[in-house]
Design goal:
heterodimer, A: 319 residues, alpha/beta, 5-stranded parallel sheet, 4-stranded parallel sheet, B: 430 residues, 8-stranded mixed sheet, 18 strands, globular
């Protein structure tokens, strides 16, 4: 079993079967990651390049750990967006790296569609680690795994996504994935931070936390970029927290067993109360990070199965 | 020299009909036209075999990249693309580098055009210096040097007071102002139309209402100043409704539409295909249909190519950073014929919008199939099918959204001023 596409560019292209294939394999890697010797050989001898056009600590580290545990050689390349604009174009960089014959290219870029563009110019498998406001598929998959493990299922749940939906690729990928699996998705946030016609993406829009979180099984908080004040999106952090920040009082609107999720990094006191974020009875934020490594291992295993099948002799000679 | 084109399907936008007949040319003028226009003792008789003959296309809003970006398009390449597309007059845009905002640049431009092309060129000059929206261009001197209109193209004059002065001044000088209706604040930084598609793709987007707001501002200023005003391209139903109301109330304004907004919609962008990035952005299907209807009922007077050459490098970028615009000189007619084949528009309605109305707007004699009119003609087969290969375009830049698409309609011959300036290579000798 493997994925239909050579790349993982977004949730949009994944079938439900592929989503479950990834999650099921990830379960296995969760177990592996809890051993003291965390070694697998799916990527043994392969080269993985993490190409990050946007600063990232968490996602890049997660991909790096995942690749190394699978036996790949991992190279991190961070490219400062401003210098990239002056010099080499995205496609030239892609072709240069392609000539080094990597097997996996993990790419994050600040512009929607940039990872798709790059994937058309290279021979290796490309994993989208976030492109602009478009998609962040591995985040949605790790969220799905986290939900499935805590809630026991991944369908028929009421999921409230709260905060800056407009600028969030995490929200888009989650809406796509959880929508495919027949969940009720609600988005909550100020109108200035909601994309146009979001209601046509199969979600309901709610103006208040009380309304949107009522009976929710999962509460997904999004990070608020601090510079959003400048574009007149919101008046101040404290007003934002007053309306949309998650604290114990607002969480009481949700079901008693509702879980709290956040893609990180957290702005304590802006979108979520610090104590609540640390409450291991409600917050699964640390589980999300753990699932992130496992999900990424599963995806890398699956997309390279494609490559191993493509070059049939690799299987015999490589192992 | 007398030439007769006989056995031709004459497309006459003036009388709004299409009929079999012949057309006689004497030197640079049409001598006679009609079902009984034979017997003029021509030296050359051309059997059109039932194919169409229409007045040559007058295309408002062509960007020729001289001066400044000759690697994208030159007079020579634009000229040969135009005649191959049945275009006999190009009304050129001033958004060059530098902008055409003074009579000296305009004279250079006109001289280069005359020397390199057989197609007529009628230049539009910049409304404000450098298209910066601050100081008026030398409207009167530019008009004397041959400018047929004034426009800052897609750079909207943001300051309403400056815009009102531009319109006042042009009104007094009898100069035509060509506006680009768009609210500059709302549209800043956007590369798609806001809605389900842009939200899904995560593209920064502008509401379709920004066009309506821009048009409403300009129309209010036209009412204030009495200027002659033409909106270069409308693309939304909301703006067409505003235009229709203004015309109904007696305001002397007109508007055009680009061929892309008539034949494509936002879904064509699909996976961030930058050849579909144009300005204003492609709209929803309801808007495209509204634009076709508006051409059919005459609310929108003019169809143009909005020919905007961009080199490969400026398009091989992530969607947000890629340059806007598409080449269209050679695809204008075949793309427009899609609307004929779909039954939306008749041939005479098409040529009213492609030839007659733009000529009238600019006070030109062209655009008509009538005795005495300049012999600017296009002979074409509206049915001939072909798959467009962008690398066979004559334009230096090949940024067309129609690459690989099946189109119908082929130009066989083009006449400018009575001279045959283009003949399709597989068309037999005279």
């Amino acid at each position: 079993m493997s994925l239909a596409s050579r790349h993982l560019l977004g949730i949009e292209q994944l079938s439900i079967q592929e989503i479950f294939l990834i999650l099921d394999l990830a379960e296995m890697y969760v177990e592996l990651n809890r051993q003291s010797v965390k070694r697998a050989d799916a990527l043994s001898g392969m080269t993985q390049i993490n190409l990050f056009y946007e600063p990232s600590t968490r996602t890049q580290a997660s991909f790096e750990v995942a690749g190394k545990r699978l036996g790949a050689h991992v190279i991190n390349m961070a490219i400062d967006a401003s210098s990239a604009r002056k010099g080499e174009t995205l496609i030239d960089t892609a072709m240069t790296l392609n000539a080094m014959k990597p097997d996996l290219l993990v790419v994050r870029h600040g512009l929607s569609g940039a990872v798709y563009l790059l994937s058309q110019k290279v021979n290796c498998a490309v994993l989208n680690a976030g492109d602009g406001r478009h998609e962040h598929p591995t985040q949605a998959l790790l969220d799905a795994l986290t939900i499935r493990r805590t809630k026991g299922r991944l369908h028929g749940l009421t999921i409230a996504i709260c905060g800056d939906i407009l600028h969030s690729r995490v929200a888009r990928s989650n809406i796509l994935l959880l929508g495919k699996l027949q969940n009720r998705i609600r988005v909550i946030g100020p109108r200035t931070l909601l994309p146009a016609e979001i209601d046509q993406l199969g979600v309901t829009v709610h103006d208040s936390m009380r309304d949107g979180m009522h009976d929710a099984d999962v509460v997904m908080m999004l990070r608020l970029q601090k510079e959003r004040m400048h574009g007149a999106f919101i008046p101040s952090e404290r007003e934002y927290f007053h309306l949309y920040g998650l604290n114990a009082r607002k969480l009481a609107f949700a079901r008693d067993d509702a879980i709290v999720m956040h893609p990180g990094p957290i702005n304590r006191g802006v979108e979520i109360d610090g104590t609540l974020a640390d409450d291991i009875k409600r917050s699964v934020i640390q589980d999300q990070v753990e699932m992130g490594v496992a999900v990424r291992m599963a995806i890398m295993d699956l997309v390279t199965r494609n490559l191993r099948e493509q070059f049939g002799d690799f299987e015999e000679s490589g192992r | 020299m007398k030439i007769e084109l006989y056995n031709a399907m004459l497309v006459d936008p003036e009388v709004n009909s299409t009929y079999l007949g012949s057309i006689a040319i004497n030197e640079n003028r049409i001598l006679a036209v009609g079902s009984d226009a034979g017997n003029q003792n021509p030296e050359i008789r051309i059997d059109c075999a039932g194919k169409c003959v229409a007045p040559g296309i007058v295309d408002i809003g062509v960007k020729i990249c001289e001066p400044g970006e000759r690697h994208k398009e030159s007079f020579q390449s634009a000229g040969s693309a135009a005649v191959a597309g049945g275009i006999t007059t190009m009304v050129t845009r001033p958004d060059t580098l530098p902008a055409i905002d003074n009579p000296e640049t305009l004279e250079f431009f006109a001289r280069r055009a005359r020397a390199s092309m057989k197609v007529r060129v009628r230049p539009v000059a910049a409304l404000t210096k450098g298209r910066e929206g601050r100081e008026l261009s030398e409207i009167s001197l530019l008009k004397d040097a041959g400018a047929v209109g004034f426009s800052d193209c897609d750079s909207v004059v943001e300051d309403t007071r400056v815009m009102s002065r531009c319109l006042h001044y042009c009104s007094q000088r009898g100069a035509l102002v060509i506006g680009h209706p768009q609210d500059p604040g709302l549209s800043r930084g956007s590369s798609a139309t806001s809605g389900r598609f842009a939200s899904m793709k995560g593209l920064p987007a502008v509401s379709f209402l920004a066009e309506k707001m821009g048009l409403e501002r300009d129309l209010a200023l036209v009412e204030l100043t009495g200027a002659r005003y033409h909106a270069d391209q409308l693309s939304t139903r909301a703006a067409v409704e505003v235009l229709a109301r203004a015309v109904q109330s007696g305001l002397d304004v007109t508007a055009g539409v680009s061929i892309h907004h008539l034949t494509l919609n936002e879904m064509d962008i699909a996976d961030f295909r930058t050849f579909f990035k144009v300005k204003p952005p492609l709209r929803a299907e309801v808007d495209r249909v509204a634009m076709v209807d508006a051409v059919a009922d005459g609310t929108i007077k003019i169809i143009s190519s909005m020919h905007t050459p961009q080199d490969e490098e400026s398009k091989r970028l992530p969607f947000e950073h890629a340059a806007s615009g598409a080449v269209a000189l050679e695809t204008l007619l075949p793309a427009a014929l899609r609307l004929y084949h779909s039954g939306d528009l008749t041939l005479s309605t098409l040529f009213r919008a492609l030839s007659l109305n733009p000529s009238r707007l600019l006070g030109q004699e062209t655009g008509r199939l009538a005795a005495g009119a300049p012999a600017d003609l296009v002979v074409f087969d509206p049915n001939a099918p072909f798959v467009l290969d962008r690398f066979r375009l004559r334009s230096k830049s090949r940024n067309t959204p129609f690459d690989g698409q099946l189109l119908q309609g082929k130009v066989l011959r083009t006449f400018v001023d009575g001279q045959e300036v283009f003949r399709a290579s597989d068309e037999g000798a005279q």
